[in-house]
Amino acid sequence: MATLNLKDFSTLVSDQVTAIQGRAAALVDFTVGSLMLAITQSNASVAQWLQQLILNLLATTRAATCSGADLDSWMADFGFTRLSAVQASGQVAFARFTPGNAALIPLGAIVATMDGSQQYNVIADSNNPAFNATLRGYLLPAGTAALTVPVLASTAGAAGNALAGTVGVIVGSIAGVDTVSNAAAFANGQDPETDAAFRARFVQWVSSLSKATKSAIGYALASMQQGVTYTLTENQDYNGNTLYGFFYAVVDDGSGNPPASFLSAAASAIDAVRPFTSRFAVFPPQVVGANVALALTTDPSGNHNDVVQQVSAALQKYIAGLKLGQLLPYTQLVALAYGASPLVTNVSGVLLNGASADLAANQKQVIRPGTITVN
């Protein structure tokens, strides 16, 4: 957008006074309370209103400057839509103090975080041996103290990414079940696609319209859902041997361990835009575990255990967000520890997979949290 010659209220009034006085044969009264000053100030107010209308119009008619619903409307002219929010999912363990009788955990049973801000519903998993389609739930046999089942956030968005150990409330009651907990964090919830990402994907979409290009394949994969990362390698097989006319994609949904259904969907997306007569394959990423150990010294005014939990959560979140082939810098661990809480006064004994060096990943690998030990 060209640079606009905008004027504030005082400048508009001053310009009018200068123009009128320059064309008047005698001195004009512009003192406070005078009729001419009131007229110029009124004109300035109207001019500012018109100026703001013009700015609003310019901002909403360009994809580079509009936002939110205006950007959605602009993109809709091309049949291009924003990726929606994604519901967080994970595993929770239902347990009881006295496992004497069988119990049923019904589909749709609701659990929540300790503070009640997020709720999750029990969903079906036919691969779980305890799932009973007839009873529409998971059967907890007599003599079994606990059972782990999948849940899905009631509301889509990143807020549903609960930390480990924070889902601990059963909403209502389940006969024969006393407690619920989540041993691992939920990490796959996504907010709606941001304006910046929406614009970037639109540019990629325009580049993909010719089809049968690397950009077209990349756009097809990126449009499957939010959080998708991928690498494309051409004229080589998965083992690195030269194979002309063949390419492979390593695709991750953000979890590091995408399900078979996701890989199948990725293959379909690629097949729709791949070059004619070419061959390809889709693979999941190889997970490289990042085992972190460090010791903290904290300010005596705070609770040391609380700070340890904050640092652990920060490390988990950062490492879980790394993309395919992205390096985990050794020094970043120290920065994350200091940034997690102002009560951290010293970080020592930092080890990453038992060494004091960066952890690298190639185009087939993604780094994910292993054992995080913070003392």
TrEMBL record:
Signal peptide: none annotated. Pfam families: Baseplate_J, Baseplate_J_C. InterPro entries: Barrel_Baseplate_J-like, Baseplate_J-like_C, Phage_Baseplate_Assmbl_Protein. Residues 291-375 form the Baseplate J-like C-terminal domain. Residues 95-189 form the Baseplate protein J-like barrel domain. It comes from the Bacteria. This is Putative phage protein gp47/JayE. It comes from Paludibacterium purpuratum. The lineage of its organism: Bacteria, Pseudomonadati, Pseudomonadota, Betaproteobacteria, Neisseriales.
